[in-house]
Amino acid sequence: MTNIVLSERDERLEKINELKKQGINPYPAKSNRTHNIAEVLADFANLEDNKSSLILSGRVTSKREHGNLTFANLQDGTDKIQVAISKKDIGADNYKIFGKYIDMGDFIEITGTCFTTHKGEKSIMASNFTLLTKAIRPLPEKWHGLKDEEELFRKRYLDILLNPEVKELIIKKAKFWQAVRTFMLNHDFIEVETPVLEVTTGGADARPFITHHNALDMDVYLRICTGELWQKRLMVAGLEKTFEIGRQFRNEGMDAEHLQDYTQLEFYWAYADYEDGMKLVEELYKYVAQETFGTLKFKIKNFDIDLGKTWERYDYQETVLKMTGVDILSASEDEIKKKLDELKVEYDTKGFNITRAIDNLWKYCRKQIPGPGFLVGVPVSVSPLAKRDVNRPELTQRFHPIIAGSELGNGFSELNDPIDQAERFAEQQKLREAGDEEAQMFDHEFVEALEYGMPPTCGFGTSERVFSFLMNKTGRECQIFPLMKPKNEAQ
Questions:
Q1: DSSP code at position 235
Q2: Three-point CA angle 125, 127, 132, nearest 5°
Q3: Homologous superfamily of 2-139 in CATH?
Q4: For position 1, what pLDDT does the model report?
Q5: How many other C-beta atoms can be found within 10 angstroms of the C-beta atom of residue 22?
C-alpha cells in the first residue's frame, strides 16, 4: 500500500514539473471567486434563468470522463456542486490539460453558468477553469481510507474533510462558546484576559506544567485555572462582574473526560454568593444548550438528561453516607481507605491523605448520580478557596453542577478573609511538602491583595467538558487537534 501511495505522489510531482514548463503556475496566490457554492444553490433558479456568469472555487472530490465531456464534483467550505467540462466549450487544449493534470484533491476555479441536467441535477457548465492548488498526495477513500483512531486524530484535517459530522462538531463547538460569551455579556459581565504564565499556580488542585522564562531566567508555570486569583484581584480593584474564556493546562493523566490543555470559562461576581451563582449557572447551561443544540434533552453515557427539569441538590456528606455508609466528617483516613479498597476504587497512593481519600470516595458516588443538579455541603478540607458555611463551619459554600455522573463546573462563595485564606494556604503547603503535587501553592501576593479588602464574591468555572458531554463524546473527539505523540518515521 505504501509503494502505491508514493508512486502516485511521484506522478503528481511530475505533473507539477510539466505544468511549470508549460507556464502554468500550480499555486497561484489569488482566486477570483464571485460566489460560494451555497449561495449558488440557494439562488439557482434565478441564476439559471438569467444565464448569469459566475466564478466558483473549491476542491475536486470526484472526476468522471465521458469522451468529450467530463463531470467533476466541486466542494468548498459551504457545499458541493457538479461541474460539467465540455471540450467544445473550453477548447481542446484546455480540455486536454484538465483531463491530464487535474486530479481529485486539487483546488480549481471554475467560470461558468448554471444548468440542470436531464436527471434534474443542479450543475455548472464550465467556460473556463484555473488550477489554484495542485495536491501532491491523493485523498483517502471515504469508506476505505483512514480507520485507525490515532491516525484520524493525527490527520484530523482529513477526518474533517471526509466526515461532515466532524465538521459539524467544530461548528457546534464554536456556537457553544459564542453562546457562553453572549450570555455573560448580556448579564453585564466584562471580558478580561489574565496571565497564562505564573510564578505561583493557584485556583485549583492540579499538577502544573513547568517551563523556563529565558529573559527573567526563572522557572514559571502554565496556569491551571483561567485566572481565578487574578480575577479576584480585580474584585479588590472594584470591577464587580468579570469573566474570561481561555486556555488552561494541567500536567495530569489522560482519559475520556480529562485533557491536558483545554478551554475554560471562569466568572467572578461581586456582592453575590453561591446561591446566586447556582441560579445563574443553571440559566447559563440551559441557554447554551438551547442555542447550540436546539434542545434541553440529551442522551449522555447511560443517562437520559433533561436540563429543563428542576435541578436537584445533593449534600456531600449525606450522599456519601447513603451510598457507602461512611461519614466523611468523622471517618479516619484508614477507615476511608478501607472502604475504597472494599469498593475496588483505584487511586494514586503517592501523596495520599485524608483529602484525597474523601475526594476518591465522593467520585465513586458521583458516577451514580444522573442529575441535573448541584453538589453542595462540600468539606473545607477539599475546598481551600471557598467561604465557610456560617451554620456548619466544617463545610463550605461551594457547588458543582452534576450531570451524567460527573462534575461539570465548580463554584463557591469566595473566601475573602485574608487570615483564613493564609491558614488554608499553609495547610495546602504542608500537603505539597508531604508529596501531594496537586495541593495548592502558598500565594503570598494574593493574600496581601485580600488584606486590602475584597467584597463578598461568587466565582465559578466550567470547561469544554460540558460541550463534550452534551455531544456524548470523549474530550479528545471534541478537540480539533488533540495532543499526539510525534511519529519518528518520515511520512
A1: H
A2: 100
A3: Nucleic acid-binding proteins (2.40.50.140)
A4: 43
A5: 9
Name residues whose C-beta falls within 8 Å of residue 418's C-beta, 6 or more positions apart in sequence.
447, 448, 450, 451
For 57, counting Cβ atoms within 10 Å of its Cβ (0-12 exposed, 13-18 middle, 19+ buried), the class is buried
Quick check: 384 and 325 in contact, CB under 8 A?
A: no
If you search the block for the grid coordinates 469573566, which residue do you land on? 243
Domain boundaries, the chain: 2-139, 159-311+371-471
Q: Does domain 159-311+371-471 have CATH number 3.40.50.300?
A: no
Percent of the chain with pLDDT over 90: 79
Among the listed residues 210, 230, 209, the one whose alpha carbon sits nearest the alpha carbon of residue 219? 210
Q: Which three cell numbers stand for residue 68?
A: 468529450
Residue 313, beta-bridge partner list: 374
> And the C-alpha cell for 479?
478537540
**Which ranges of 111-250 does DSSP label H, i.e. alpha helix?**
149-154, 156-162, 164-186, 228-237
How do residues 110-163 score in pLDDT, each as one tens digit? 999 999 999 999 999 999 999 999 999 998 876 455 667 788 888 899 999 988
DSSP three-state, residue 321: helix
φ, ψ of residue 190 to 5 degrees: the values are: -105, 140
Angle between helices 444-451 and 418-433 (to 10 degrees): 170
DSSP H or E stretch at residue 268? strand 261-270
The C-alpha cell at 113 is 453558468
Contacts (Cβ under 8 Å, ≥6 apart) of 165? none
Spell out a b/e string for 392-431, using b for 16 or more CB atoms within 10 Å of the CB, else e: eeebbbbbbbbbbbbbbbbbbbbbbebeebbebbebbeeb
The DSSP letter of residue 218 is: E
Q: What is the mean pLDDT of residues 227-256?
A: 93
- What average pLDDT does range 291-318 have in this prediction? 96
| CA 405 to each of CA 356, 369, 467, 476: distance values in angstroms, whole numbers, following the listed order | 19, 5, 15, 19
User: What is the torsional sign of CA 169, 459, 223, 375?
Assistant: negative
Mean pLDDT, the chain, integer:
92
Q: Is the pLDDT of residue 490 over 50?
A: no
Closest listed residue to residue 155, CA positions, set 478, 490, 488, 480: 480
Q: Rounded to whole angstroms, what are the CA distances from 390 to 53, 225, 272? A: 74, 27, 16
pLDDT confidence of residue 487: 78
Cβ burial 117-129 (10 Å sphere, 16+ → b, else e): eeeeebbbbbbeb
